[in-house]
Design a protein that fits this description.
This protein has nine helices and twelve strands. It is of the alpha+beta class. The structure holds aspartic acid (ASP).
């Protein structure tokens, strides 16, 4: 009996010593990091193919294509994401088709109050201006705020004074007087008191997010705000965390839409936080914020975003969003809905 017992232990001991190692499961394959990626928006709104002439479609496509090509060329050549998003937004600020810089919408007083912000994912530094008048490239004033001041946000006269110290290019009121924005202003003036402003008027803000070859993310957003906005009204575009965000650990985001709702739900930072604390994918985080948070309150609009792996997201709950994306595996320029991930 004692021999059998000893034999049993011996067998068990040997088995333990020679038991094969448990199979190590291969880690799920990470989708390969893309060396660079860019996403651009030119505003969201309730417009469809039927409401835009072929001529206008061609013009918008050409403008988005030009902005995308500029960003692609710079990123492919190794330019920093921060410089690329600024350069792309500057180009769109010069384009009167969009509600930013030159094509900015009119306030209720018939003036232009421009908002812009920029964020650097590498340093988590940022800069913003709101209610800026008389300067053609608010995004560069936002960049100067980040680079050359001890602050991150200037408003109104303070923003103009700071822009002057930086030698930013000034632009006279006539430069901002475009027929498209003026017609909208007259239409809104006729409807005064008849709020809310029709949804289709909320389009044209511009934004760009990018991942560069060094793995850095950046975001930039620029707008004239909303047609017939009251003097001093601030939307989400110049607010870091609402309209713009960049953090190399997660993503870069630029938003467009009904700003009040984007501020109330802290859209851009909400996307980042879901990724950082909840481990969500870029796409899932954007969809949750746009549909279940901002949209659930009654807001409309969308975001463009890119993560540190070069995944892109273009998520909107409006009928359309002017948009373009590119990375070494593909590219697209689009404007109409419904929402569909590339
Ligand atoms: N978000 C901008 C604002 O509320 C407008 C827009 O994106 O169309 O000022």
């Amino acid at each position: 009996m004692r021999t059998i017992w000893i034999l049993g232990w011996a067998v068990l001991w040997t088995a333990c010593q020679t038991a094969p190692e448990p199979l190590e499961l291969a880690a799920p394959a990470e989708s390969p990091a893309r060396p660079w990626a860019i996403v651009i928006h030119g505003g969201a709104g309730h417009f469809g193919e039927e409401s835009m002439s072929l001529e206008m479609q061609t013009l918008y496509t050409a403008s988005l294509e030009a902005a995308l090509s500029l960003g692609e060329a710079q990123l492919a050549a190794g330019a920093p994401a921060l410089d690329v998003v600024e350069a792309v937004v500057r180009l769109l600020e010069d384009d009167s088709l969009f509600n930013a810089g030159r094509g900015a919408v009119f306030t209720a007083e018939g003036t232009h109050e421009l908002d812009a912000s920029i964020a650097d994912g590498a340093t988590r530094n940022c800069g913003a201006v709101t209610g800026l008048s008389g300067y053609g490239h608010p995004i560069s004033v936002a960049r100067a705020t980040m680079d050359s001041s001890e602050h991150v946000f200037f408003s109104g006269n303070g923003a103009s004074e700071f822009a002057k110290t930086q030698g930013a290019e000034t632009a006279p009121p006539e430069w901002f007087h475009t027929t498209k924005a003026y017609d909208r202003y007259v239409g809104a003036a006729d409807r005064e008191g008849d709020l809310p402003v029709p949804l289709e008027e909320k389009r044209g803000t511009v934004g760009c997010v990018a991942l560069d070859r060094d793995g850095h993310l950046a975001a930039a957003t620029s707008t004239g705000g909303m047609t017939y906005k009251r003097h001093g009204r601030i939307g989400d575009s110049p607010i870091i965390g609402a309209g713009t965000w960049a953090d190399d650990r997660t993503c870069a985001v630029s938003a467009t839409g009904w700003g009040e709702y984007f501020i109330r739900t802290g859209v851009a930072q909400d996307i980042h936080s879901q990724m950082l604390y909840g481990g969500k994918s870029l796409e899932a985080a954007c969809e949750h914020t746009i549909f279940d948070e901002m949209g659930a309150l009654g807001g409309d609009g969308g975001v463009v975003a890119v993560d540190a792996q070069g995944h892109v997201a273009l998520v909107f709950n409006s009928a359309g969003m002017f948009r373009a994306w590119s990375h070494p595996e593909g590219r697209e320029v689009a404007m109409f809905g419904p929402y569909q991930q590339p």
